[in-house]
Design goal:
Layout lengths: L11 H6 L18 E5 H4 L9 E5 L5 E3 L14 H19 L5 H12 L13 H19 L1
Antiparallel strand pairs: 1-2, 2-3
Helix pairs in contact: 3-5
The structure holds zinc ion (ZN).
Zinc ion binds next to loops.
InterPro entries: DUF3268
């Protein structure tokens, strides 16, 4: 069972399952203070979301990012409020693509990666900056138009 797992005692199987893991963030891209720590959801949200209530957080400016469940591998790069919002906003139309069942999730990621000219393994919303999020959103909206035409 994974109940006694923490980011300091992660699951080996869950860790091995993550393809292309990013290193743990040590520098905050938003401020000059480098005080990135592992923080519990209770401290960020005042409650627990999901099964793995941990984030990496810059204690100076509160930019943060979650972790793959039962590991200490970050889901992406640290995000401030604007970037978190951009990632959320662009993920929505993208998810609509494969929720439509006219394309698989894999095909959608392949298409987006090709659009960006990057390998599919590097095509993660958690890795995008705001500009890339907006490009992904525009691409997704176009694809959705094509699918419904
Ligand atoms: Zn910071």
């Amino acid at each position: 069972m994974s109940h006694n797992k923490t980011p300091w005692n992660p699951s080996k199987t869950a860790t091995a399952r993550v393809k292309n893991p990013l290193p743990a963030p040590t520098k905050c891209p938003f401020c000059d203070q480098c005080i990135v720590k592992i923080v519990h959801h209770n401290e960020v949200y005042g409650r627990v979301y999901g099964e793995w209530p941990w984030v990496y957080m810059c204690k100076a400016c509160w930019a943060y990012v979650g972790m793959h469940p039962f590991t200490n591998i970050p889901l992406g790069t640290l995000a401030d409020g604007a970037l978190r919002k951009a990632r959320k906003n662009c993920k929505d139309p993208f998810e609509q693509i494969y929720l439509s069942k006219k394309m698989t999730r894999d095909e959608a990621y392949m298409g987006l990666a090709e659009h960006f000219g990057i390998p599919k393994e590097e095509c993660h919303f958690g890795w995008f900056n705001i500009e890339q999020c907006e490009m992904a959103r525009a691409w997704s909206v176009e694809v959705l138009k094509g699918l419904s035409a």
